[in-house]
Amino acid sequence: MYAGEVVGCVVATIKEPNLEGIPLLIVRVIENGRPASLVVAADSTRQAGRGDHVYMIGSKEAARVFRKKLTPVDAAIVGFIDEYREEL
């Protein structure tokens, strides 16, 4: 599980059929309290937007979040972070 901030969205006119209706968002991963890489994550909440802090899961667990069929994703947003503090 890892945290990030939504910074944008992906618009795709043609998607893999199992991705239909699932928003794809660009998320800046937060590592050790600092912004790191960007990833494209499927939004299982269908409510996340720009500026939201979210937590994600990756790998095959991300594909299983959507329950219908295996969805071809490497990262899935599964919840929101109300408050984020990095204590060092």
Q: How would you characterize the overall build of this protein?
A:
With 88 residues, the protein is mainly beta. It has a single domain, classed as OB fold (Dihydrolipoamide Acetyltransferase, E2P), CATH 2.40.50.220. Helix content is 7%, strand content 44%. The chain has a five-stranded mixed beta barrel. Strand 2 and strand 3 form a beta hairpin.
Give the low-confidence spans: none
Which CATH class applies here?
Answer: Mainly Beta
The dominant shape is globular
Into which percent range does the helicity of residues fall? under 10%
Q: Quick gist of this model?
A:
The protein has 88 residues and is mainly beta.
List the helices and strands and how they pair.
Layout (H helix, E strand, L loop, with lengths): L1 E9 L13 E8 L2 E10 L9 E6 H6 L10 E6 L8
Using brief descriptors, characterize the structure shown.
7% helix, mainly beta, 88 residues, OB fold (Dihydrolipoamide Acetyltransferase, E2P)
